[in-house]
Amino acid sequence: MSGSAYETDLDRNPANYQPLTPIAHLARAAYVHPDHIAIIHGDMKMDYRSFYERSRKLASALQAAGIKRFDTVSVMLSNTPAMLEAHHGVPMSGGVLHSINTRLDAAIVAFQLDHADSKVLIVDREFSGLVADALKLATVQPTIIDYDDPNYPDDAPAAKGARLGTIDYEEFLQSGDPDHHWSGPEDEWDSLSLNYTSGTTGNPKGVVYHHRGAALMGYSNVVASGMGKHPVYLWTLPMFHCNGWCFPWTLGVVAGTHVCLRWVRAKAMYDAIADHGVTHLCGAPIVMSTLINAPEEDKRHFPQTVSFNTAAAPPPEQVLSGMADAGFEVVHLYGLTETYGPAVVNEWKGDWNDLDPKARTTKKARQGVRYNALEDLAVIDPSTMERVPADGETLGEVMFRGNIVMKGYLKNRKASDEAFAGGWFHSGDLGVMHPDGYIQLKDRSKDIIISGGENISSIEVEDALYRHPAVQAVAVVARPDDKWGETPCAFVELRAGRAATEEELIEHCRQHLARFKCPKSIVFGEVPKTSTGKIQKFVLRDRAKAL
């Protein structure tokens, strides 16, 4: 029996099928809008023609340096033009981009470099001290390229560190070919980037993105953020965090302007918004607090309404009203590293504006509905893999399915299989499904604390505290914080006859953890346990909220 006519002589060929890739967004923007400003950094302005040429130079130079398909190129960079060029030049070379969190400690950076088998490491001199310590611990010996930011502020909180290698980034770039004929991925499933999670137990896991997902995120981010042609985007979100939620690639879809920002400071943000006509930015609750609580002399007036994308915990009503008064419209998003950043949006409906304040707040507290590029979003009972009733009450695990879900965890088949059990990505987050199809988180089963937009493993903090000789039992939970969203709060039970102060234990943690992971408050006393000896964290969460 012959096949359908729709399956006969209608094959894929180069004319009708090309692998999706986010690099194409930049290529088109440079072709259509070569003279439009692509990047602003201090007093430097770069048009799309130059942005595309410099990205091709980087790709050419990396290939000349030996980078082949699927080689890892690691970067320790701030929100600078070099970071934007890396997001395009590295995949143009066939390499996989590994952006390192600049706030990590040397041991974790060393682990990532070894686990990723990094071949090249581009280092901003602001972080050369940290990287030097990491390289002493690492086994790999990547080629080091030093990035010396020409717009490094004179009033910087820290001086530039020493150069670590013999290659300067700008000189390296100039060795490349601006007309380099880059090739897209052989398959849109090809690996594009590598992002490490904050590990809940042991070492962090390496999340691998593919070209298809990042390309689709470009279109979805434009829709979810309400971007028109030529938006102006301020970089307050670190580009090392889920590749900046894929916005380094997204802006090319609408030929937008990237406004770089090395440090998130109120005056610098207001100046950028007023001087450059910023229309969009993303950030954690801490960025909103910084803006609305800024001294009056740091604030600037601007005529446009600025769209502010935020994730993590929903902002309190007073923060939302403060942002509105300051000229910002807040868009609430939700996602994970494993979903390319935001994959869920609290898509606001016009008639909700007519609700009373309490009802509006209830609507805003929900995480929302799936992104356009996500095929399915559900709340599922993990024991039966059946969807829970959409009653706003029945608890289940939030699960994702679609093209903006990671390929898997690098070199970790067991973790990947567990994450994808039953044909869904298991988020580990517990929530409910409301009758109108909007989800709402109720708890995080992984006990992850989200502070300033960064994930902190409670177990990692507990392990550090357990190293102190006076500590007998400890549990770390999230404590609500107006500035950071959440901060780690440690409940500590001391050994009989031993003593320790809050300051002593926090200082002890600083010797083992990155500073942002250290507890901001410590409560001494007996840690509540079940009859089997399991610590009752739900009791401690209530106590932390009441502090």
What would you say about this model in short?
Keywords: Fatty acid metabolism, Ligase, Lipid metabolism, Metal-binding. The chain is an alpha/beta fold and 547 residues long.
What distinguishing features does this structure have?
single chain, 547 residues, alpha/beta, Rossmann fold, 29% helix, 26% strand, globular, ligase, 3-methylmercaptopropionyl-CoA ligase
Task: Kindly describe this structure.
The structure is a single chain. This protein has 547 residues and is an alpha/beta fold. Among the domains are: 23-263, ANL, N-terminal domain (Rossmann fold, 3-Layer(aba) Sandwich); 448-546, ANL, C-terminal domain (GMP Synthetase, Chain A, domain 3). It is built from 17 helices and 27 strands. The strands form five sheets. It has a nine-stranded mixed β-sheet. An eight-stranded mixed β-sheet has the order 7-6-5-3-4-8-9-20. Strands 18-17-19-21-22 form a five-stranded antiparallel β-sheet, with no helix packed on it. A hairpin with a 4-residue loop joins strand 14 (328-336) and strand 15 (341-345). The chain is globular, with a radius of gyration of 24 Å. The model has no long low-confidence stretch (mean pLDDT 92). Residues 27-410 form the AMP-dependent synthetase/ligase domain. Belongs to the ATP-dependent AMP-binding enzyme family. Pfam families: AMP-binding, AMP-binding_C. Residues 460-534 form the AMP-binding enzyme C-terminal domain. One of its GO terms (molecular function) is ligase activity.
